[in-house]
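4.2 Preliminary Data

To establish feasibility before requesting continued support, the project team ran the inverse folding procedure on a target of 64 residues. The structure was first converted into the token representation described in Section 3, and no sequence information of any kind was made available to the design step. The complete token record follows.
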């Protein structure tokens, strides 16, 4: 896979997360961890689907 293709896929996934979870900032660190931050909340994961799942769980707990 080319570097351009990898960069495009990463950018696309970051856009998807931003659209799904408003108010959060997202990124992919050099260590390979995806991260999300909002205020004092930080969520990190090596897998983007796990990050998405943890953000949904956090949102559900905050609604209770």
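Position-by-position output of the design step:
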């Amino acid at each position: 896979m080319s570097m351009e293709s990898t960069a495009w896929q990463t950018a696309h996934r970051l856009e998807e997360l931003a659209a799904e979870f408003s108010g959060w900032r997202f990124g992919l660190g050099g260590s390979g961890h995806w991260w999300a931050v909002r205020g004092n909340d930080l969520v990190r994961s090596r897998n983007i689907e796990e990050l998405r799942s943890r953000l949904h769980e956090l949102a559900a707990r905050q609604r209770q």
